[in-house]
Design brief:
nuclease; globular; AP endonuclease; hydrolase; single chain; about 40% helix; alpha/beta
């Protein structure tokens, strides 16, 4: 499995563009970040080349909501631009969410005026079209459920709804991002859930609960969690999207040993 570190949260002690060098020094070959639209992609590419790094994932959406049918055109147009950015970066995976999400990773608009049935139907149809864009580009969209404690108003906040959406879309280019920090808060029992989701999972985000720090700082049984990944044959990316408990360099030592 590939280990990727999220440089939106790790190595924040230095400027964003200096984090690539720190990631390489810490022994990682892959990094991930959120919004591409706020970044100088030319400068990112230069840092990737200089330090022999690859981008594991970026955010595919931002200003528009997946669950609003009347925002579909805007959502898909932004997704097209995201896919072009991903192709420029050589990035194979784009993370998508149910609601509009800002460059800071926070829900910026919630479709409270729509029923859950309307949101579900809109998400399925938009992802069907988005999956076709991903197929043409040779990349994958991964749909992420978030917790409502830190992301109030988020429609997609549980694995079962995410599973139903993925199954209705029925595309190998649209899979599920399982974030254990978010889902431990919302539903617990993450080992059994991983086994039930199986090959629908296309990406994993890791942070311990409840502080969102590195593994071993909280309550999650990572030995049991790792067994569940073995059981489903998961061999994709483990993305460490976490806030270091002390500093980034110490956190990276823990991540390397994970």
């Amino acid at each position: 499995m590939i280990k990727s570190i999220c440089i939106e949260k790790i190595f924040t002690e230095v400027d964003f563009y200096d984090r690539f060098a720190e990631a390489a020094k810490a022994g990682f070959s892959h990094v991930e970040f959120w919004s591409w639209s706020t970044k100088d992609l030319g400068r990112v590419m230069a840092e990737l080349g200089k330090h022999g790094l690859s981008v594991a994932s970026i955010s595919g959406d931002q200003d528009y909501s997946l669950v609003c049918a009347d925002e579909r055109e805007g959502y898909l147009e932004y997704l097209r631009r995201s896919i072009e950015a991903a192709k420029t970066l050589g990035c194979p995976t784009l993370v998508v969410h149910s609601d509009a999400i800002g460059p800071d990773g926070k829900i910026s608009a919630s479709a409270k005026h729509l029923s859950n049935e309307e949101k579900f139907a809109a998400a399925v149809e938009t992802l069907r079209q988005g999956g076709e864009l991903a197929r043409e580009a040779g990349c994958t969209l991964v749909l992420e459920a978030l917790n409502t404690n830190t992301q109030p108003g988020c429609y997609l906040h549980d694995s079962e709804t995410a599973r139903r959406i993925i199954d209705h879309v029925d595309s190998p280019y649209v899979r599920l991002l399982y974030d254990i920090w978010h889902m431990e808060q919302m539903e617990g029992n993450i080992q059994a859930t991983v086994r039930s989701l199986g090959t629908r999972i296309g990406y994993i985000h890791i942070a311990d609960s409840c502080g969102r720090h590195e593994p071993g700082t909280g309550t999650i049984d990572f030995e049991a969690f790792n067994r569940s990944l073995i059981d489903i044959g998961y061999d994709g990316v483990l993305g460490f999207e976490l806030t270091p408990a002390t500093d980034s360099w110490n956190a990276c030592e823990t991540i390397r040993a994970f």
